[in-house]
Amino acid sequence: MSEGFLQQFVKDYGNEPGWLRDIRRSALDRFAALGFPNRQQEAWRYTNLDPIQQTAFKSVDFSSPGVIKTVQLAELMGDTIAAQRLVFVNGHYASELSLAKGLPDGVIFGNLSDMIVSHPKLLEESLTHYAPYQDQSLVALNTAFLHDGAFVYIPKGLALAQPLELIYVSSLDGAGIAGVSYPRNLIVVGDEAQVTVVERYVGVARDPYLTNAVTEMVGGAGSHIDHYKIQQEGKLAFHLGSLQVRQGRDCHFSSHAITLGGKLSRNDVTTVLSDQGCDTTLNGLYLVGGQQHVDSQTSIDHACPHGTSRELYKGILSDQATGVFNGRIIVRPDAQKTSARQSNKNLVLSDEAQVNTKPVLEIYANDVKCNHGATIGRLDEQQLFYLRSRGLGEPEAKGLLTYAFASDVVDSIKVETLRNRLKEWLFVRLAGQGKLEAA
Fold first, then answer.
1. Can you tell me the distance from the alpha carbon of 333 to that of 366, in angstroms, rounded to the nearest whole number?
2. Tens of pLDDT along 267-322?
3. CB neighbours of residue 158 within 10 Å
4. DSSP assignment of 372-399, as one string?
5. Contact yes or no for 211/239 (Cβ under 8 A)
6. CB–CB of 93/101 below 8 Å?
7. DSSP string of 288-310?
8. What is the largest CA-CA distance in the chain?
9. Given Cys at both, which of 277, 297, 308, 394 links 250, Cβ 3.0 to 4.6 Å?
């Protein structure tokens, strides 16, 4: 790594707390040692990151050429899903678009760079503790260059009725710049507390850009956490996302990952059931067309007894799109009385679309109930014939059946505004054509 690069690194981050600066340097060294993942590694066998390595990405801010102005950003975001929101543009906090007031006493909801100054002890105790970077090069890269993101803290016993929304907008309008951002979110939920977090990534750009996002989350004993991630990046975007969760005793956690956009998207979800009685739900839906590529990797680690997990990921692919699903459930030797089930179902709408799916169970305990399965198929010809015999055209019939395939994941979303919005997005994407238009 060049001396000039290191000087820039010190220049950019030299004024922050020593503990964070030390973590950055350690993560930077670790990324230099690990390098980018490659296809010789089993977890990256079907996803090629060479286009990212061959692109000269640059960090951009509000003053950079081609950045869409505030009035255009509001239109790009669309209607917000939650009243309380933090908005980031190209990785930088946009206070004029955010609203984080009127929350109950004890709740902390703000951008990470400010919170490091105002709540240094809380950040030092938690930041980077739940998303280890020693063996994950992309997490190491994010940790080395994290600039901003969201910090959410819900104190013990508080149930927050309204969702909190985190919106990340990438907006470069034909400036010939390949932008990059490293969003970092930290969500700490106290014992017996409850929160819903909606994480959205949207973008419009005529040039490629990269989002390398990491969200780390810890749930205290008896807490309830619902997390939604909606990825609607631009057509030429690269999105690399990682969600790392640590659940305490009797913690209930659910994750819903909806992938609609991006040229190449990778979504890693890891949750550790680190105490007894944990409950985990992982749901996912990916819709890709054109030459989009989506890679979903999940890991549910049952480390203690009496844990329950459910996982359902569904994919819809058309044109020359490609998809990957690799779901792993681990049941440790002490995790007796575990109940776990996993399913990945894929609907392929063209001869050229491809899916590689690999559900995995690793069971080291003997008193458990676990099962898994995966399917890849096409639309049912008999159902299609039935709808057409009732007067529907072929495109409309295909669109209706495709929507029905995705409906159980959509209907599991508890936030009504988000659920209705997703239904609208799906109708637009399907457009009664029996195929998917790229987002």
1. 8
2. 999 999 999 999 999 999 999 999 999 999 999 999 999 999 999 999 999 999 99
3. 17
4. EEEEEE---HHHHHHHHHTT--HHHHHH
5. yes
6. no
7. E-TT-EEEEEEEEEE-SSS-EEE
8. 71
9. 277
Note the pLDDT tens digit of each residue in 58-71.
888 766 666 666 66
First and final CA of the chain: distance in angstroms?
37
* SS3 category, 147: coil
| Residue in the structure block whose two tokens are 């007031």 | 101
**How many C-beta atoms lie closer than 10 Å to residue 162's C-beta?**
13
Confidence (pLDDT) at 67: 67
Q: Is 219 helix (H, G, I), strand (E, B) or coil?
A: strand
Q: C-alpha angle 53/146/68, rounded to 5°?
A: 80
Give the chain's radius of gyration (CA, Å).
21
Which H helix or E strand runs over 20?
A: helix 18-34
CA–CA dist 37, 34 (Å, integer) = 8
Helix 18-34 × helix 3-13 angle, to 10°: 150
Place of tokens 């807490």: 223
Distances (CA, A) of 152 to 81, 110, 272, 400: 17, 7, 20, 39
Tokens of 10: 């010190």
Give CA 311 to chain center in angstroms: 15
